[in-house]
Design a protein that fits this description.
The chain is α/β, with parallel strands linked by helices. The protein contains seven helices and seven strands. The protein has a seven-stranded parallel sheet with strand order 3-2-1-4-5-6-7, sandwiched between helices. The protein is globular and about 55 Å long.
Amino acid sequence: MGRLADKVAVVFGGARGIGLATVKEFLDEGATVFASDIREPAEEIDHESYSHVVVDATDETQVDEFVRGVLAKTGRIDVLFNNVGIHLGKPLADTTLAEFDNIFALNVRAAFLGTRAVLPHMIERKTGSIITTSSNGGVMGRPGDPVYNATKHALVGMTKSLAVAHAHQGIRANTVNPGAIDTDMLRGTLSSPEEFEAKQHQLVASTPAARVGEAWEVAKAVVFLASDESRFINGIVVPIDGAKAAGALPGNRYSLDFELGVQ
């Protein structure tokens, strides 16, 4: 049996990248998965324990209806994975108020709404695991995307507070904090595949592991936090970034011609 056998998992932001990789890992581990996203999934998944619906995770009514629908079908939600988010790589002085409001709505409000919809049910059952995708920018300062990082710090703060507030009720809340992961979101910040290949040298120059991560590497950590193997782990931040958040590199490592690491 899989590590998530008989568990019901709700995924917000499950159509691509880390979300889609996590959906696949959840299914492989035996979970029943109810995924949602603002768009259809990037690839078709033919599995009897999987469904996907289009939901705007920033819309209170749509989120509540989605969660109520899951509970009506299954009577339980064991795992919530909040994975909605966008990037904004702009200096603070160049960020418009509309951009500020939009990124907080997508990165913070969506996680708030998803968690609020599921939490009363978990409190009633006295069990549940809530995992939220933050970023290594949620535990360190990064000069290129300060407003984005502010949203990711907010998610860490909310998660730690949830853990402290509800641990005695059997509820766990943790974050995964990826660094540079090869996803549509990362590639979408660049204009071409060639630019992505060139950008890798900048990414690995500041990453001790000297490579870009893969979505499945984050998904594996989410599975662990969703499973009973981590039942006494609560309120933690899990950087998945090749040690970038651990500290500064030696000065001679910040070089654009540093050799790419072994995959």
